[in-house]
Amino acid sequence: MTVDTYSGPVESDPGYGQLAAVLWRRRFVLLAVFFAVLSASAFWTLSKKPIYQSSMQLLVEPNYQGKKDSNAETQFADSNVEIDNSTQLAQMRSSQLLQRAVVILKKDYPRLTTEELQSSLVLLQLEEDKVKTKIFQAVYTSDDPIKAQKVLQAIQKVYQDYNREQQKQRLTRGLSFVNEQLPVVEEQVEEAEKALERFRKSQNVVDPEVQSRAIVDALTSVQRERQLNRAEIQQAQARFMELRQRVNQSPQQALVATRLSQSSRFQSLLNEIQKTELSLVQQQVRFKDKSPFVQQVVDQRQRQLSLLSEEVGRILGNGFSDQSVAGASSLLTQGQLGETDIKLINEMVEAQVNLVSLNARSQSLVDAEQSMKAELRRFPGLLAEYNRLQPQVQLRRETLQQLLKARQEIALEIARGGFDWQVVEEPKLGVQIGPNLSRNLMLGAIAGLMLGSVAAFVREGMDDSVHDPDDLKKQTSFPLLGMIPKLSGTASPLPKLNLGNGDLLAPSMMQVIYWQPFRESVDLIYKNIQLMPTADGLRSLVITSSLAGEGKSTLALGLAISAARLHKRVLLIDADLRRPSLHKQLGLPNEKGLSTLLAQGNSIADKRDIQITCRYRDLPLSVLTAGPTPADPAKLLSSQRMAELIATFERSYDLILLDAPPILGIVDALLAASFCDGTVFVGRIGQVTRSELNQATAILSKLNVIGIVANGASPATNPYFSYERKLQSTVP
Questions:
Q1: Is the CA virtual torsion 343, 349, 353, 359 positive or negative?
Q2: Sign of the alpha-carbon dihedral angle for 35, 37, 38, 42
C-alpha cells in the first residue's frame, strides 16, 4: 500500500464561470433583493410631487469684437469686458442681480426669496462638439410650470437692463485705464533699454549668443587642427626614429661628423693620423713599446691628434661639446662619411627640425583651446543676463505699441457700445421632468441587481458547503474520478432484482442503480479507477465519505455491478458495523455477516463462509452484509482475523468493495482501509462542507487514495447529458 502526501486544498482565482454559478445558486436571494429595491424605487417615484423646468438661452459677447484683426482693446479696455466663463457665470448668479428679479416677481409670488431663486436656478455654458460657445443657458426648476416661465422672464429683463447700464461705464473705464497705463509703460521701456545698454558696455559684448556661437565654432576648428597636428607629430617622430636608427648616431654627433667630413684640412690630418697609426703598429711589431722608435711614433701621433683637436675647434667653434669630439673620434675609426651617409644625416636633421616645429604648433593650439574654453565659461552667465534683459525690452515695446493702438480704437468704440447680452431663446412654459418613472425604475433595477449580487455573494461567503465538482476538486489534492449526476424527476419503474434466494431488490434502489445516467457515470468511474497508476494490481477497495448520507453505499453497489458486468468476480462487503444499511437497501437478511465472521475463532477456508450470494443475470456479484452490531466494532476491524479475511477474499475474487463508515468521528474506516489496496472518497455536492472535506482529506492522506467522486453533481456539468443532447439534436 502506497502513501500519498497531502498538500492541502488547492486555491485559485475565481473566474467568470464561478461568479455566474454563485449568482445562479443564490438566485432567490438576488431576486428577493432585486424586487425589493425595484418596489421601493417605484413607490418613491409615485409618491413624489411633479417637477417642471423652463429654460432660456443668452448670447454673451463684446460688441467691439467686430474687428477680427484687432484684439488690443479686449486686452486693455477693461478687466470686466473680456470675462472668463467662471466669472461671467458668477456675475449672472450674483444675489444683487437676482434680487432685482425677486422685486419684479413680488406681486405674483410674495414668498419668493433670493436664496430660493439661487438654489433653483442653473446657469451653464453650452458646448458644441466639445468646444465651448458664447451661449449661456439658464434653467429654472419649480413645482409650477407658469412660475418657472415667469421667473426666467424676470431674469431676462434684469440681465438686459444691467447690460445697458454697464456698456458705457465699461468703455469709459477702459479708456481711462489705457491713459493711466501709457506713462507707466513708457517709463518701463526706457528703464529696460538703459539696463540692456549698461550690460553691453560692462561686458564688452553686443550679442552674447552670436559671439558664443562664433567662439564655439573656432574652438571646434582648433580641436580639429589639434587632432591633425597629433597625427603629423606621430608621423614625424616615426620618420625621425627610423632615420636615427639607420644613421646609428645622435643628431648632434651626426651633424658634427658631416661638417668634419666636408673639411679638406680635417680629412688631411685624419689621413696623416691613420698613416702614423699604421707606422706605430709596424714599429710595435719590430720593437718594444719603450723603444725610442716606438716612442717617437707615439709622440708624432699625439702631436697630430692635438692638431686634429684644434682643427675640430676651428671648424665647430670654441663651444664644441664632448659629443663633437666623440663624432670626430668616430671618424678616426670609421673613416670619412660617404654621400649616402651625409644624405641620411641631412634627412634626420630635417626630420628633427620638423618634429620640433610640430610640437611647438601643438603647444600653441593647446594654449588657444584653453583660452577659448576660459572665454566660453563666462558666457552662460552673460547669456542668462542677456536673455533676461532682451525679452523685457521687447515685451515692453510691444505693450506700449498695443496701448497706443488700443487708445485710438477704444475712442471709436465708445459710440457703438461695448458689451451686449442677446436673447437667443425666450423662456418657455415649464415642462415636467420628474419624477421620471422609467428612469427611476431603471436605476432601481441596476441598484437592485448590484445589491442583490452583493447579498448573494455575502450569503455564499457564509455558506461553507461545496457546490460543484470543480470546487470539490480544488479543496483536495486527489484526482477527480468522475461525477454522479443528481437524481432529477422520477425514473420509470424497473423490475425487481432476483437475489437467487427468494428475496427481491427494492424497486427504489433499482431506480437509482439502473438509472441510465447513473449507470453510465459509475461505469466511467470504474474505468477511471482501473486506469489510475495507483490502482495497479488493486484487488480490494474501500468506499468512504466525510459524513453519512453522501451516497457511498449507492456508489459501492454501482461499482460492484459495473465490475460484474465486465466479467469480474466481485464481492461487496458492508463494513459499517455500527450502522449497517446495505442489507436494508438490498432487502437481505442480516443475522450473519462480517461481524460474525470476525468473531468466529476458526480459520476461514474459502468464500463459502459468506452468508449470502447475490446473482443477477448470471453476474458474478456476491454481497456480504455487516451482520449483528458488535459491542466493539473497532476491535473486530483491527484484528488479525480481518487481515486474514481480506486476504482470503482477494484469492477468491477479482475485486472486493468495502462499504465503510464515514471517515470523520470514528476510526472504523481507517482500520478497514489499512487492510485494503486502495480507497475511494465520495463527496456529495451541496452537503459536504469545505472544513469537513479538509479534515477528511488530511486523514485520508495517510492511505492510498485512488481519487474522489463528486456525487449529486448538476446535470449541466455531466458529460453524459451533453452527449445525449448532441445525439438528440442530430436525430432528424
A1: positive
A2: positive
User: In terms of Cα–Cα distance, which of 303, 674, 702, 652 is closest to 477?
Assistant: 702
For the chain, the C-alpha Rg in angstroms (whole number) is 60
Provide CB contacts within 8 A for 648, sequence distance 6+.
604, 605, 606, 607
End-to-end, the C-alpha distance of the chain in Å comes to 53
Strand order, beta sheet including 621-624: 480-485, 705-713, 678-684, 540-545, 655-659, 570-574, 621-624
How confident is residue 657, by pLDDT bands cut at 50, 70 and 90? Answer: very high
Q: What's the helix, strand, coil split of the chain in %, to 5?
A: 60, 15, 25
Name the grid cell of 92. 449672472
Give ∠ CA 205-210-213 in degrees, rounded to 5. Answer: 115
Contact (CB, 8 A) for 83 and 181: no
Residues 657-679: b if buried by 16+ CB within 10 A, e if exposed: bbbbbbbbeeebbbbbbbbbbbb
DSSP 469-508: HHHHHHT-SS-EEEEEEP--S-PPP-PPPB-SSS-B--HH
The owner of cell 684644434 is 310
d(CA 242, CA 237): 9
CB atoms within 10 A of CB 434: 15
Side-chain-side CA neighbours of 261 within 13 Å: the count stands at 20
- Given a contact cutoff of 8 angstroms between Cβ atoms, the answer to whether 595 and 577 are in contact is yes
Cell of 349: 636633421
**How confident is the model at residue 496, as a pLDDT?**
45
Nearest 5 degrees, angle CA 183-CA 187-CA 192? 150
CA-to-CA distance for 111 and 151, rounded, in angstroms?
13
- Count CA atoms closer than 13 A to 428's CA, side-chain side: 13
- Structure confidence by residue, pLDDT tens digits, 330-388: 555 555 566 676 777 777 777 778 888 888 888 888 888 788 777 777 777 777 777 77
Q: How far apart are CA 193 and CA 396, in angstroms?
A: 10
At 589, give phi and psi (nearest 5°). -70, 155
More confident residue, 237 or 608: 237
pLDDT digits (tens, 9 = 90+) for 556-600: 988 998 898 888 899 999 999 999 988 887 788 888 889 998 887
293 in Cβ contact with 283 (< 8 Å): yes
Residue 537 pLDDT exceeds 70: yes
CA dist 722 and 485 (Å) reads 12
Classified as helix, coil or strand, 400 is helix
Q: Which residue has the cell 698613416?
A: 275
Angle between helices 516-531 and 552-565 (to 10 degrees): 80
Taking the CB of residue 392, how many other CB atoms lie within 10 A of it? Answer: 17
Please work out, in degrees rounded to the nearest 5, the angle formed at the alpha carbon of residue 307 by the alpha carbons of 302 and 313: 125
**Burial of 347 by CB count in 10 Å (0-12 exposed, 13-18 middle, 19+ buried)?**
middle
- Is the backbone peptide bond immediately before 435 cis, with ω within 30 degrees of 0? yes
Helices (H) and strands (E) in the chain, counts: 26, 12
CA–CA distance from 239 to each of 100, 225, 247, 404 (Å)? 105, 21, 12, 77
- The two beta strands, 131-142 and 51-62, are antiparallel
The answer to whether 572 and 623 have CB atoms below 8 angstroms apart is yes
Beta strands (DSSP E) in 16-169 are: 51-62, 121-128, 131-142
538 CB neighbour count, 10 Å cutoff: 17
Matching residue, cell 437692463: 161
Angle at 173 between CA 168 and CA 179, to 5 degrees: 130
Round to whole Å and give the CA distance between 484 and 482.
Answer: 7
